[in-house]
Amino acid sequence: MTQRPLPDERRPANDGRRVAARNRAALVAAAREIYAEYGLDVPLSAIARRAGVGQGVLYRHFPDRAAVATAVLEENVGQIEQAAAAPGADIARVLGVLTWHQTQSAAFINILHADGTANRSGIPAYASALSGRVERALRALLPDDHRMAAAKDDLMIAVAMVSGAVTGPTRELREHRALAAWRLLGVEVGPVRPFDDDEGGQPPLD
After folding, report:
1. Residue 129 — pLDDT band, cuts 50, 70, 90?
2. How many CB atoms lie within 10 A of CB 41?
3. Which stretches does DSSP call E strand in the chain?
4. What is the SS3 assignment for 194?
5. d(C-alpha 7, C-alpha 189), whole Å
6. To the nearest whole number, what is the mean pLDDT of the chain?
7. Cβ(84)–Cβ(141) under 8 Å?
8. How far from 78 is each of 61, 97, 182, CA to CA, in Å?
9. Cβ within 8 Å of residue 20, ≥6 positions away
10. Chain centroid offset of residue 205 CA
11. CA 82: distance to chain centroid?
12. Which residue in 16, 132, 136, 191 has a CA-CA distance of 20 to 30 Å to 151?
């Protein structure tokens, strides 16, 4: 006779949702890494393998390549918005978060300069909306006397100039070039790192 499990042996009712959330987070993280290394046109199977899940799990969360890319880019932009809204935020610190994403992925650079047209990877005009959100997050912290505030387009022109310098085979080299570009523009940039909500966007303590 099969014994029924005791109540404390049963899986929580929301365990499936937690697993699904973990799988989605793993897929987005894997996609970001893969895109940084190989660009937006990598096979979806490579993302699933990097995340440690089956391809069927990937398709349950993301029906196509554009959906995966949009999820990654949405998370990147969300980090910049969170950094801009964090207590004590200033333009230098948020530019550090922006620069980290620039050095992580050429895909992110592409959306910063989106013109509303789809590219061959299927990223829709939604990229233009993401670009606008990045600009608004930065502009909200831009002091009137900041060198990037002299004219209406100066902010995103400066971002575009730095983006053009973000080249090289390693993230370290891309970061070095990005910081050199900001320095030549005379713009102060905070720590180049992702925004960590648990730390309020602050650099880790030594």
Report:
1. confident
2. 11
3. none
4. coil
5. 54
6. 82
7. yes
8. 19, 11, 23
9. 60, 61
10. 23
11. 12
12. 191
CA atoms of 49 and 146, how far apart (whole Å): 45
Amino acid making up residue 180: A
201 vs 127, higher pLDDT:
127
Which pair of structure tokens corresponds to residue 58? 């990937």
Mean pLDDT of 153-161: 91
Q: How many CB atoms lie within 10 A of CB 203?
A: 12
Q: What is the DSSP string of 124-139?
A: -THHHHHHHHHHHHHH
For residue 196, the 8-state DSSP code is -
Say how far apart CA 110 and CA 127 lie, in whole Å: 9
DSSP 42: S
Q: Which tokens hold the place of 143?
A: 């002091």
Place of tokens 């909306």: 129
Render pLDDT for 17-51 as a digit per residue (tens, 0 to 9).
889 999 999 999 999 888 877 777 789 999 999 99
Pairwise CA distance, residues 28 & 67, whole Å: 10
